Amino acid sequence: MTPKPNALPWLWLSAAVIVLDQLSKWWALHALQPVGVPHPVIPGFLNWTLAFNTGAAFSFLADGAGWQRWFFVLLAVAISAVLVGWLQRTPRRDWRTALPLALIVGGAVGNLIDRLHAAQVTDFIHVYFRQWSYPVFNLADCGITVGAVMLIAFGLFAGKGQGDVR
């Protein structure tokens, strides 16, 4: 009996997210100085603004004494390992599961690299409208968020039509 092909090849997408994330952060570090100064891209909606975050989403735990770095490193490693294991058990053609998992792994590892290298995550995408402002984020955060939303949406709204892989 031959084993069924699993979804581990989808990790190429994770690798692409990691590379794009790291290249964009390198660009931001070199092109968007000084820190905190907005560079308008779409006035009234989108700026490139270099920022650093020692915490998690929305700067959660950013004011910790440094322990949060290792907490988020361990969390990223554990979550990535679980998701890679999930990909290993997922049939290769089940893209509704593999695609979001690969995006999340790529984003988690992208931010993990920052935490290990600099003890903080480099952010630079700032979306706002009038008085409303979303916290500055990066491409790794996009991978995590888009992957999580897709995973939830596909799980909740996927019909079990003919030919669906489940």
TrEMBL record:
<keyword id="KW-1003">Cell membrane</keyword>
<keyword id="KW-1133">Transmembrane helix</keyword>
<feature type="transmembrane region" description="Helical">
    <location>
        <begin position="98"/>
        <end position="116"/>
    </location>
</feature>
<dbReference type="GO" id="GO:0005886">
    <property type="term" value="C:plasma membrane"/>
</dbReference>
<keyword id="KW-0472">Membrane</keyword>
<dbReference type="InterPro" id="IPR001872">
    <property type="entry name" value="Peptidase_A8"/>
</dbReference>
<comment type="similarity">
    <text>Belongs to the peptidase A8 family.</text>
</comment>
<keyword id="KW-0064">Aspartyl protease</keyword>
<keyword id="KW-0645">Protease</keyword>
<feature type="transmembrane region" description="Helical">
    <location>
        <begin position="136"/>
        <end position="158"/>
    </location>
</feature>
<keyword id="KW-0812">Transmembrane</keyword>
<dbReference type="Pfam" id="PF01252">
    <property type="entry name" value="Peptidase_A8"/>
</dbReference>
<comment type="function">
    <text>This protein specifically catalyzes the removal of signal peptides from prolipoproteins.</text>
</comment>
<feature type="active site">
    <location>
        <position position="141"/>
    </location>
</feature>
<dbReference type="GO" id="GO:0006508">
    <property type="term" value="P:proteolysis"/>
</dbReference>
<feature type="active site">
    <location>
        <position position="123"/>
    </location>
</feature>
<keyword id="KW-0378">Hydrolase</keyword>
<dbReference type="GO" id="GO:0004190">
    <property type="term" value="F:aspartic-type endopeptidase activity"/>
</dbReference>
<protein>
    <recommendedName>
        <fullName>Lipoprotein signal peptidase</fullName>
        <ecNumber>3.4.23.36</ecNumber>
    </recommendedName>
</protein>
<comment type="pathway">
    <text>Protein modification; lipoprotein biosynthesis (signal peptide cleavage).</text>
</comment>
<feature type="transmembrane region" description="Helical">
    <location>
        <begin position="67"/>
        <end position="86"/>
    </location>
</feature>
